[in-house]
């Protein structure tokens, strides 16, 4: 067991931080600047002079502030944190950070969307990246995953094709941040291996509520290798402690306009507020001799290993507890490379993974301007770096001595190669060189059907609506028809429902649905715990009943949820008895929208309720929250707003089956009581009421 001590990435980063507080302005050369508001002119109204080095330097630096955005995953958001394993996994691996429960390994995580450019909206329908850099004492390990456990293609040579197809079309660069266009679906219709991932993409997984409520997956099968050299196949899973939760499509589209930074802001604010996002690392471990036990190939990245076959064992926890100091220096310059593995973790022959091993190293050369990107503070390993790699753009170190080759005597034979270090798993390989796909990769439909079968009723409805939206945006009828043809292979009912919405003839049944399900695939199996970090809008107006309002805000605060009081006029609210209770200042109702919240409560108070009922925006706010199946509460006079918005059950008559679910009402006058608060918080825990 190694010595128990934290490995401090923060301390390493501190050396790179620059704080300008209390300093005076200089040029990049350290020359003091006397005036940065005026160029040097020949006469106050005359031309600028070429000798003005300050002007030239300032403009030159500005001209070159941008670097190429990532060719995929351009829009992202990052955070620092740490990872700790629960118990030693030495049985499986020599990776020290997985073997020492005392060791807190610093990490940097970047979440991202795939299709859109750096300035695109957060809530588009897309896959989300979940990339983690572990700064271990044995070097950096990068787990570069997504929030979906499968990928569109089986061989990395198809990556440029699938990305060209999904990115904005080449002739007009439309659409931004969307897969709802002809070229993507043309590709899908011709490449059925995409189907399984497309099912995930059309599900609510593609519009996560928050980076904090999103699963992560390493996707490929990797290997763990122990001290005896024995190999265990492994799939990596991140499970958010808060549960996995999504938006609904109408909401996601509106947020893209109301707050394009929705997910980014949420992550930032949660960390600032101390509600640190947490994820459990889980492993699916498959003994080497069971490689061929399944009806799919472990090397095929379009397949999951169903949890019913191999359970996910929780092995450790990731906590994100610090926002970056500077977006560009850290989040933009972080360079993940799938090839960064530490001793005890190794690759498999998954042909998608194999191509990634080239691409990530290669892409940084263009993006970060040369081969020295590992020296950037956010990329620097905590482990010592010694080798003879030298020179290149932006070399920041000054290697001393003459022995820049191996073997040498001029440098004392250093850096020495002791013969221990990363040893590749000695997999036996035997075969002919062929440009061919393995036949074990041929089944593209069984797991697409498994996913469909595992969805709840409302998840299926959302999938059908998503297909109709996306395919409905395709101009070519032949593309729509071909996709429906593939859906028919997944499930007849699905294909019929989609076809009916997009003007395609009902397909004839082609076969039987196998009927298998995996409960772990449904969001209903991933509710998580509590209401931590949930955002509640409390609608109020002058004359609001203040005791109940204060109780509500406090009850939510105590459970880790956040209450925003929204009123037609921002600022300190006049309350029903003009008392001086400490109430939070109200935000302007018109500056916010129901789509930015997880739930709504209408506060009590006669004057307040009377004003809200007459306010069209407030009525819309509540009606929209109901449409998006969010928990809604109302206290005493506040119930009037629910009535005005036409919510079932608000008028005292029994609501039709299920229609009143998630609506919590306190009819009796007076402040919100304990029963109401408990019931509302229980409803908030239940998330949505479809
Ligand atoms: Fe990739 C970025 C995830 C297949 C080539 N990828 C990138 C990022 C994530 C993923 C999360 C953003 C990293 C960051 O935040 O900087 N990519 C995946 C997953 C895949 C996958 C889960 C399949 C299982 N990717 C994949 C293939 C290729 C690439 C098959 C090429 C053959 N990916 C890249 C890239 C990027 C990248 C071009 C762009 C920016 C970067 O690497 O650093 O190299």
TrEMBL record:
Cofactor: heme
Heme as UniProt keyword: yes
Top-rank lineage group of the source organism: Bacteria
Active site: 73, 146
EC number: 1.11.1.6
Binding residue positions for heme: 70, 110, 159, 356, 360, 367
Region (Disordered): 19-43
Function in brief: Decomposes hydrogen peroxide into water and oxygen; serves to protect cells from the toxic effects of hydrogen peroxide.
This protein's record includes keyword Chloroplast: no
Gene3D superfamilies: 1.20.1370.20, 3.40.50.880, Catalase core domain
Regions of compositional bias (Polar residues) in chain numbering: 23-39
CC per GO annotation: cytosol
Protein name, per record: Catalase
SUPFAM superfamilies for the chain: Class I glutamine amidotransferase-like (SSF52317), Heme-dependent catalase-like (SSF56634)
Domain Catalase core: 26-414
GO biological process: hydrogen peroxide catabolic process; response to oxidative stress
Organism (species): Rugosimonospora africana
One MF annotation (Gene Ontology) recorded for this entry: heme binding
């Amino acid at each position: 067991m190694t010595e128990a001590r934290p490995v401090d990435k923060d301390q390493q980063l501190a050396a790179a931080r620059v704080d300008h507080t209390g300093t005076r302005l200089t040029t990049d050369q350290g020359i003091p600047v006397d005036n940065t508001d005026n160029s040097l002119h020949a006469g106050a109204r005359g031309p600028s002079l070429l000798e003005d080095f300050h002007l030239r330097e300032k403009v030159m630096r500005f001209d070159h502030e941008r670097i190429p955005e990532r060719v995929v995953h351009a829009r992202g958001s990052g955070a620092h944190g740490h990872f700790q394993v629960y118990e030693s996994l030495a049985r499986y691996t020599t990776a020290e950070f997985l073997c020492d429960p005392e060791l807190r390994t610093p990490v940097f995580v970047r979440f991202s969307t795939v299709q859109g450019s750096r300035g695109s909206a957060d809530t588009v329908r897309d896959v989300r990246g979940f990339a983690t850099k572990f700064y271990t004492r044995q070097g950096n390990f990068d787990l570069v995953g997504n929030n979906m456990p499968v990928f569109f293609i089986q061989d990395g040579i198809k990556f440029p094709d699938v990305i060209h197809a999904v990115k904005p079309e080449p002739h007009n660069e439309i659409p931004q941040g969307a897969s709802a266009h002809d070229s993507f679906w043309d590709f899908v219709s011709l490449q059925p291996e995409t189907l399984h991932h497309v099912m995930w993409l059309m599900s609510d997984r593609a519009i996560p509520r928050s980076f904090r409520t999103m699963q992560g997956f390493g996707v490929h099968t990797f290997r763990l290798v122990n001290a005896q050299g024995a190999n265990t196949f492994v799939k990596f899973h991140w499970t958010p402690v808060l549960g996995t939760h999504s938006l609904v499509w109408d909401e996601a589209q509106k947020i893209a306009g109301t707050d394009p930074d929705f997910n980014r802001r949420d992550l930032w604010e949660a960390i600032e507020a101390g509600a640190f996002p947490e994820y459990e690392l889980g492993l699916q471990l498959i003994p080497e001799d069971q490689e061929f036990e399944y009806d799919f190939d472990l090397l095929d990245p379009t397949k999951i290993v169903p949890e019913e076959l191999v359970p996910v064992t929780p092995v450790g926890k990731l906590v994100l507890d610090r926002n970056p100091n500077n977006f560009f220096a850290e989040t933009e310059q972080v360079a993940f490379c799938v090839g960064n593995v530490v001793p005890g973790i190794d690759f498999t022959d998954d042909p998608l993974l194999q191509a990634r091993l080239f691409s990530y190293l290669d892409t940084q050369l263009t993006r970060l301007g040369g081969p020295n990107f590992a020296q950037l503070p956010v990329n620097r390993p905590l482990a010592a770096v010694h080798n003879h790699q030298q020179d290149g753009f932006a070399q920041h170190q000054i290697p001393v001595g003459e022995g820049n080759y191996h073997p040498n005597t001029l440098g004392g034979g250093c850096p020495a190669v002791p013969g221990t270090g990363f040893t590749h798993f000695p997999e036996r390989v035997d075969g002919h060189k062929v440009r061919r796909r393995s036949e074990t990769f041929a089944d593209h439909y069984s797991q697409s059907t498994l996913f469909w079968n595992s969805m709840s009723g409302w998840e299926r409805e959302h999938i059908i609506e998503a297909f109709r939206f996306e395919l409905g945006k395709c101009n070519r009828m032949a593309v729509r028809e071909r996709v429906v043809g593939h859906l028919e292979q997944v499930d007849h009912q699905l294909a019929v429902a989609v076809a009916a919405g997009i003007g395609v003839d009902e397909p004839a049944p082609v076969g039987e649905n196998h009927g298998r399900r995996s409960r772990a695939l449904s969001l209903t199996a991933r509710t998580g715990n509590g209401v931590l970090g949930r955002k509640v809008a409390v609608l109020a107006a002058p004359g609001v009943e203040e005791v109940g309002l204060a109780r509500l805000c406090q009850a939510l605060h105590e459970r880790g949820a956040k209450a925003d009081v929204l009123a037609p006029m921002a600022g300190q609210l006049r309350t029903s008895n003009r008392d001086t209770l400490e109430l939070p200042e109200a935000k302007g109702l018109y500056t916010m929208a129901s789509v930015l919240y997880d739930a709504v409560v209408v506060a009590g108070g006669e004057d307040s309720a009377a004003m809200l009922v007459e306010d069209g925006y407030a009525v819309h706010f509540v009606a929209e929250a109901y449409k998006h199946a969010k928990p809604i509460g109302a206290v005493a006079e506040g119930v009037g707003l629910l009535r005005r918005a036409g919510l079932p059950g608000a008028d005292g008559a029994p609501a039709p089956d299920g229609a009143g679910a998630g609506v919590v009402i306190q009819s009796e006058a007076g402040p919100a009581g304990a029963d109401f608060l408990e019931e509302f918080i229980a409803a908030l825990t239940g998330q949505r009421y479809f």
